[in-house]
Amino acid sequence: MFAVHLLAFYFTKLKEDQIKKVDRFLYHLRLSDDTLLDIMTRFRAEMEKGLGKDTNPTACVKMLPTFVRAIPDGSEKGEFLALDLGGSKFRVLTVRVSEEGKPNVHMESQIYPTPKEIIHGSGSELFDYVADCAADFVKTRDLAHKKLPLGLTFSFPCQQSKLEEGILLSWTKKFKVRGVQDTDVVSSLTRALRRHQDVDVDVLALVNDTVATMMTCAYDDPRCEVGVIIGTGTNACYMEDMSNIDLVEGDEGRMAINTEWGAFGEDGALEDIRTEFDRELDLGSINPGKQLFEKMISGLYIGELVRLILLKMTKAGLLFQGEKSSALHTKGKIETRHVALMEKYKEGLQNTREILRELGLEPSEEDCVAVQHVCTIVSFRSANLCAAALAAILNRLRENRRLTRLRTTVGMDGTLYKTHPQYPKRLHKVVRKLVPNCDVRFLLSESGSAKGAAMVTAVAARVQAQRKVIDEVLALFQLTREHLVSVKNKMRSEMEYGLKKETQPLATVKMLPTYVCAMPDGTEKGKYLALDLGGTNFRVLLVKIRSGRRSVRMYNKIFAIPLEIMQGTGEELFDHIVQCIADFLDYMGIKGASKLPLGFTFSFPCKQNCLDKGILVEWTKGFKATDCEGEDVVDMLREAIKRRNEFELDVVAVLNDTVGTMMTCAYEDPACEIGLIAGTGSNVCYMEEMRNIELVEGDEGIMCINTEWGGFGDNGCLDEIRTQYDVEVDEGSLNPGKQRYEKMTSGMYLGEIVRQILIDLTKHGLLFRGQISERLRTRGIFETKFLSQIESDRLALLQVRRILQQLGLDSTCEDSIVVKEVCGAVSRRAAQLCGAGLAAIVEKRREDRGLERLAITVGVDGTLYKLHPHFSRILRETVHALAPRCDVTFMLSEDGSGKGAALITAVAKRLHLKKDH
Ligand code: BG6
Ligand code: BG6
Ligand code: GLC
Ligand code: GLC
């Protein structure tokens, strides 16, 4: 009994002595809690440095954006090929993801060797080898006939600007292949795969092993937002808020960041904790000065650290009675698996003895205990360092989410973590101690990284397929030069039809004479009332013109016209207008004043045979009041004034908004002979030679023609370029079959075209998660101002998303990109079509005036032209391209058409007076 006790005492004593001896020798490798907290802080600072745009270039922890934005949501499916290169084993796999009832993943894999000649050879040899293995795998599994998307797990630091790209920043671990650094790994692999004509694979994604691990684990646990590898090398990734990633555009959602934490310390940040053994190991490695943190932690180096320590201790006479063996002198003779075996709970000591013997040493009992403790210290330090960096990441995640407690999951992989008997336990414990306010679940990726790589590839494949459909839809809106020239020519012939007596009744471009024949000459003066009806706003104005100085003073008030009035009876509409005039006169305090002359801007097609008569041909845009078509709107206005019997007005002129706009601009620039509206509706007027206007007597001089070009195409002449979406918009409008050109070019309809496209894409499951919301079904939600905002270049994606949210459309980041593209395609086509029409007009003017070159000014108004960020530029470019012999100046009408209406009234008054005298 006593002997047993004595023996036990002896062992304990022996153990204690040995442990103390080793502890003394390696005190520098033991890190206190304070040191770990300090390392945590340092790593946190490194992360921030890597994320900042200005600081990233000099940061050693690179914090690489991965373009993996979302964790799997269970909708992934398909069959994928996966390559897993860069860990201890090179694998080729197939991953089949299906949804039979519940998500189901089936994998088959094969390990291929990575001979030294390959990992230290040339780039082309490496990629050819990898492609050969992939081809072999595909053929042996009888998959050669299938087109397979491929996900590549490539466990080295790569710069990515998209998923299917990876510029290798540097080799790490055992790899040192010539001519690959700074090149794109995906294109090299693609090229190598193409040599195998019998296999058809498409490399859709490159992912780091940390990312693939995180995705693998996230498939089972959606809370997983960190991936850590402690294997041959060590590294971590995590989901960072886009708003913190300066290097990638967009602020919305999250993206996985591959930290490449292995490089931590390369700038000297860890010198105080690095030991002579770390330095010696680094000097003997294939990448001295690099991956200093990794070299203190990962499997490739742990065994070697132990060897260097044992060698030094032996030299100091502390082990093996100072007797070294040649194996102990040989680099790489102690491996991680040895360390793991030596630290095994029960057999550890026995294992240690055997391993040391294999190394040609003759260990005593004391030696074995000491060596085992050396292993413990080295692997403990490794776990501690990993824990500190991981704790920094967890804290960052918690702060990003503004939580006091974070519940999260970390996906884990790597041979050291998986095979070392104590490692996981130690790591978990230290992490929990360092971040007590995080509840962390550590989830081992049992199946390696291929499943995660397949998930990423599945998303990429879906995006690719979606892209194809979206591109096909957008292509319908792309017009070639031939298309545009043909539009211009057709517009020209339709205009000629409209001018000719015989063809006019059937013409789609009605070419209405306006009886406006003279331009203001600066002598106009007096006080006028003006009405401006038919654009976005209904305005009543008082315009005071002072002669000589070409100065005009205006007072105006905007009134709403409720939908029920726009589409009620004619009487109600005109009563409402007169009511607004009465309010305005009251407001200005001039109701009792003498019978003011009034100019009426009425932005609808009217047949005129004098200035103060306008028979409404038909309503356009959003108006549909009854009993107006075929009636004289001036009469209707006069009668309504009479009905009200409160004031008297002298209605002198009725004019189209294009004409008002032209006049407003001509007052400043006499070269202005054209008026263009690109607003709710679309229309043009211009000065035409009287001799060309068959409907009006006389051949002298010029008269303004209101083209009403909105009706262009109503005979089907534009059908070739009209899309199904244009047809749908037309069918859902107040005037089906009418105003087809207007419906492709003006503000009231562009948003509707966009809406129809979005509905279609949603039906195909390509937008809004396939859900057509009530809002999306609502007509008119995309007003010009929203379209304009969405397309603004200055807008970040997040803001686009916010606009869509305001419109009641719950969109993701990808949705917002697509919506913006759709808007762009639709508005671009509108501007081009409008430009082609305008080119026809300026060319006609040039020819009619018999000029080689024509300089002409176009007065323009309308919300589309004014608010849209690109419309006016594309319009100008198109006119320039299609009418190269015309120098066209575009002049924005700042004051609206009310001023022009007053001027026309003034001119009419002047001519009238002249006639009377
Ligand atoms: C494997 C993954 O399980 O672990 C690889 O599939 C990863 O992608 C590897 O690189 C890391 O561990 P090790 O020990 O093989 O480097
Ligand atoms: C205004 C004019 O500025 O623009 C109106 O005063 C015109 O007469 C209108 O109808 C056209 O633009 P929108 O976008 O309001 O239809
Ligand atoms: C190295 C690589 C890194 C990889 C890690 C684990 O640190 O640089 O990309 O994730 O090893 O394999
Ligand atoms: C519609 C009208 C037209 C008007 C244009 C711009 O096309 O028919 O008269 O000029 O809209 O407001």
Automatic annotation (TrEMBL):
Which residue numbers delimit the Hexokinase N-terminal domain?
A: 22-219, 470-667
Which InterPro entries did the record assign? ATPase_NBD, Hexokinase, Hexokinase_BS, Hexokinase_C, Hexokinase_N
Q: Where in the cell is it found?
A: Cytoplasm; Mitochondrion membrane
Pathway membership of this protein?
Carbohydrate degradation; glycolysis; D-glyceraldehyde 3-phosphate and glycerone phosphate from D-glucose: step 1/4; Carbohydrate metabolism; hexose metabolism
Give the UniProt entry's GO cellular component terms.
cytosol; mitochondrial membrane; mitochondrion; photoreceptor inner segment
Hexokinase C-terminal domain boundaries: 226-459, 673-907
- Which keywords fit this entry according to its UniProt record? ATP-binding, Cytoplasm, Glycolysis, Kinase, Membrane, Mitochondrion, Nucleotide-binding, Repeat, Transferase
Pfam families listed in its UniProt record: Hexokinase_1, Hexokinase_2
The membrane-topology field of this record reads: Peripheral membrane protein
PROSITE patterns reported for this sequence: HEXOKINASE_1, HEXOKINASE_2
Q: Name one GO biological process term.
A: glucose 6-phosphate metabolic process
Q: Which domain of life is it from?
A: Eukaryota
Single Gene Ontology MF annotation: ATP binding
Fetch the SUPFAM superfamilies from UniProt.
Answer: Actin-like ATPase domain
The catalytic activity of this protein is classed by the Enzyme Commission as 2.7.1.1
Metal-binding listed as a keyword: no
- Which reactions is this enzyme annotated as catalysing? D-glucose + ATP = D-glucose 6-phosphate + ADP + H(+); a D-hexose + ATP = a D-hexose 6-phosphate + ADP + H(+)
Q: Member of which family?
A: Belongs to the hexokinase family.
From the Swiss-Prot or TrEMBL record, give the protein name.
hexokinase
Q: Which organism is it from?
A: Monodelphis domestica (Gray short-tailed opossum)
